[in-house]
Amino acid sequence: MVLNKVNRAFVTGGSGKIGKHLVSLLLRENFDIKILSRNDLTSWQNQNRVKVVKADLLDKNILTKELSEDDYVFHLAVHQGVDRFDWETFFKVNVLGTEVLLESCSFWYKGSLNDMLGDNL
Description:
Layout: E1 8-12, H1 17-28, E2 32-37, E3 50-54, H2 60-67, E4 72-75, H3 87-104, H4 113-117
Parallel strand pairs: 1-2, 1-4, 2-3
Helix pairs in contact: 2-3
């Protein structure tokens, strides 16, 4: 007997402009989702298939723990510095945060949404 496997995804930037659309798409595709957020103010906190993980992108211990059960990782978090640009914060979030995230994954593959979902986009 083969049971239907539930895909699990971890999304950084899930409450951002692009992230909201990705999370909606993953929900339609029956994914269970964890969203990394620096605060609790996310529109996904009342969805039963979405868990909001309140943590910083630079916290390797939490990332490693949370990523251990996920099948897919989508990294969309970015510091844009819209109001006031700060190179130090830009570098910490965009460069070091990406590095920490990759180090926290047990394995990784660089691909696109089209690779994963094909014509469903």
